[in-house]
């Protein structure tokens, strides 16, 4: 039974909360903005289901240094009160910082080899994601989010983000026309999107959904990446380009606003009422193994 307390909410006309942004896609998937939902109500509904949210994070090479802030801020803001299982893919399990996790939250290190090319590290994420979903997550979790580690949480991220297939609007392109999206434009690549096509430009730092849906996404993107590799072509924005291609033909059932993927260097805009998750400023030359 839902507790009556959880079902009460403050805003009588919640749909009037955000009027200056689109809150639904042309295929009727919600676009999640502050003011369009009541967090307590949504959390109350989802908490009845006793869900586990698998959260996969890669921290290879120097990127292990980002884990501490990522985990500490996730413990303050990310799915509070839910069962969260972090899976940390790293070449240095011993370097995973000891961050105190709330009850019902666990962390599993997954050892993977290091690489001397960052493109290789990011490109292999789809393959590893596909493998771990199949080998263990199907029986260990209900939903999954795969998140970049060079990030921090600054605001609440809860059950409003759950859906079958969840994408995030890239903070750099949510006000831009589709002709300016940095899709892969060479027809030789499997990530190719012709001019005039495309719905949104999605960020590669957040992928989420049901395990089966994210499994299909990871498997398809991995296959497409392999075909490109066999032709020695690397898409403009690596797996983000393939992700955008996938979402063009497999529409996300929920789209997160750029509140869920901001960039620390970017000043807050009027549409963004809350920054929930943001990419930190990093010195690429210093953290990546190759230029
Ligand atoms: N990554 C990593 N080690 C590397 C490069 C990348 O662990 O040397 C992982 C890490 O999880 C990172 C993600 O791949 O968040 C995406 O890479 P990056 O953040 O460098 O790409 P950007 O967000 O700058 O496009
Ligand atoms: Mn990143």
Description:
Its cofactor is Mn(2+). It comes from Chanos chanos. The strands form two sheets. This protein has an eight-stranded mixed beta sheet with strand order 1-9-7-8-5-2-3-4, with helices on one face. The protein has helices at residues 4-7, 39-47, 67-77, 118-140, 211-230, 238-249, 284-287, and strands at residues 31-32, 52-59, 83-90, 105-111, 143-147, 151-153, 165-168, 206-210, 254-256, 262-263, 277-279. It is built from seven helices and eleven strands. The chain has a single domain (31-286), classed as Spore Coat Polysaccharide Biosynthesis Protein SpsA, Chain A. Helix 3 links the parallel strand 2 and strand 3 (83-90). By secondary structure, the protein is an alpha/beta fold. It is globular. Residues 148, 150, 205, 279 line the site of manganese (II) ion (MN). The site of manganese (II) ion (MN) has 4 residues, from loops.
């Amino acid at each position: 039974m839902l507790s009556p307390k959880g079902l009460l909410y403050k805003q009588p006309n919640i749909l009037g909360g955000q009027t200056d942004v689109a809150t639904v896609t042309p295929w009727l998937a919600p676009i999640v903005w502050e003011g369009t939902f009541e967090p307590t109500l949504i959390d109350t509904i989802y908490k009845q289901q006793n869900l586990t949210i698998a959260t996969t994070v890669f921290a290879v090479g120097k990127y292990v240094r980002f884990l501490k802030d990522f985990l500490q801020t996730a413990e303050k803001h990310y799915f509070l009160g839910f069962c969260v299982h972090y899976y940390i893919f790293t070449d240095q399990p011993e370097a995973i910082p000891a961050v105190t996790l709330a009850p019902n939250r666990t962390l599993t290190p997954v050892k993977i080899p290091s690489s001397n090319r960052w493109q290789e590290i990011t490109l292999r994420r789809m393959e590893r994601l596909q493998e771990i979903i199949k080998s263990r997550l199907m029986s260990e979790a209900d939903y999954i989010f795969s998140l970049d580690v060079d990030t921090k949480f600054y605001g609440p991220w809860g059950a409003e983000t759950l859906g079958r297939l969840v994408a995030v609007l890239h903070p750099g392109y949510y006000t831009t026309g589709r002709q300016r999206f940095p899709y892969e434009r060479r027809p030789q690549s499997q990530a190719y999107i012709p001019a005039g096509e495309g719905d949104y430009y999605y960020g590669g730092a957040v992928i989420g959904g049901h395990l089966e849906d994210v499994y299909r996404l990871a498997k398809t993107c991995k296959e497409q990446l392999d075909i490109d590799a066999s032709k020695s072509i690397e898409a403009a924005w690596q797996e983000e380009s393939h992700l955008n291609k996938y979402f063009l033909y497999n529409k996300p059932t929920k789209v997160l606003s750029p509140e869920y993927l901001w960039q620390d260097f970017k000043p807050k805009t009027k549409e963004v009422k809350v920054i929930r998750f943001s990419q930190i400023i990093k010195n690429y030359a210093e953290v990546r193994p190759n230029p």
